[in-house]
Amino acid sequence: MLKPILFLFALMPAATACHAGELASRPRIVLSPEAAQIHAAGLLFDGHNDLPWEIREKGNSSFDALDISMPQPLLHTDIPRLRQGGLKAQFWSVYVPAEHEKTGDAFLQTLHQISIVKAMIRRYPETFEAAATADDIERIVLSGKVASMMGIEGGYSIENELSNLQRLFDEGCRYMTLTHSRSLRWADSSGDEPVAHGLSDFGEEVVREMNRLGMLVDLSHVSQETMKAALAVTRAPVLFSHSSARAICDHPRNVPDEILPLVSKNGGVVMVNFYSAFIVPTEQLKNDKEARGTLHNVVDHIDHLVAVAGVDHVGIGSDFDGVPRLPEQLESVASYPLITQELLNRGYDTASIHKILGGNILRVLRRAEDVAKLIQQE
Ligand SMILES: [Zn+2]
Question: Which of 50, 204, 218, 342 is catalytic?
Answer without folding.
Answer: 50
